[in-house]
Amino acid sequence: MESYPLSYAEATVHLCLFEVSNAAELRSRLVTASQLPDDDRGDEERAAVDFAFIDAKMITSRLHALTAVQQALLARSDGTLKTKTIHSEVLWMLEPGSNISDSLKHFGLSASTRHLLLVHIGSANGGDAAQERSAAEGVWRRMEAIVEGKAISLEQLGRLPDGGTDEKGIRKTYKLNQDAVFKNLPLGTPEALEVLDRLTTSTVALKVAT
Asked: What are the TM regions of this chain, as residue ranges (predicted)?
């Protein structure tokens, strides 16, 4: 897990990439939590799954994901969130269009998810290193409690093993199939993946302005 204290946003961002084996159960748990009443049990279960659950096959790099986080934080500070929570806003920021349902369909957890990127945006700790470490350990324990699988390096985003990165799906979602830059760049080549990362990240970075 990697943690990024962002004092200017009064937030700390935690990211972890997993090879996951309980995607279907996790998705069912998310749906159930959203339907529970506003009581102690419901609040406790919603807190347990208070993350952005992102299907990592649609993420081209760490920067791609962090750019969506940054845009969500900007929307929160401006009071312009399009969704109910900061974590669902991260998913919406990844979506090149404006449809919230499409963002869940394209980037959200599904029963077939093999690689899961978990994002948690928490409060800042005033630059106190000990408090930051304690908070990060708490987030990590919460991740471990719900995910069955193993954590892998975030460096693998965009280059997941065994064809785990859906390059065709990313090109389609971001409407890049006709982009001339890909004409001589076959799928899966390092050059194609590098260009894909630049284009997707730029699209997310410009979303607030569109």
From this structure: none
Indicate whether this model's pTM tops 0.70. yes
Q: What is the DSSP string of 96-129?
A: SSS-HHHHHHHHB--TT-SEEEEEEEEE--TT-H
Contacts of 95 (CB under 8 A, 6+ apart): 102, 103, 106, 107, 173
The range of the structural domain enclosing residue 8 comes to 2-209
Can you give the CATH number for the domain in which 43 is found?
Answer: 3.30.2380.10
Beta strands in the chain (DSSP E): 2-6, 11-20, 52-55, 115-123, 149-152
User: In angstroms, rounded to a whole number, what is the distance separating the alpha carbons of residues 86 and 82?
Assistant: 9
- Number of domains the chain contains: 1
Cα gap 140→155, rounded to integer Å:
18
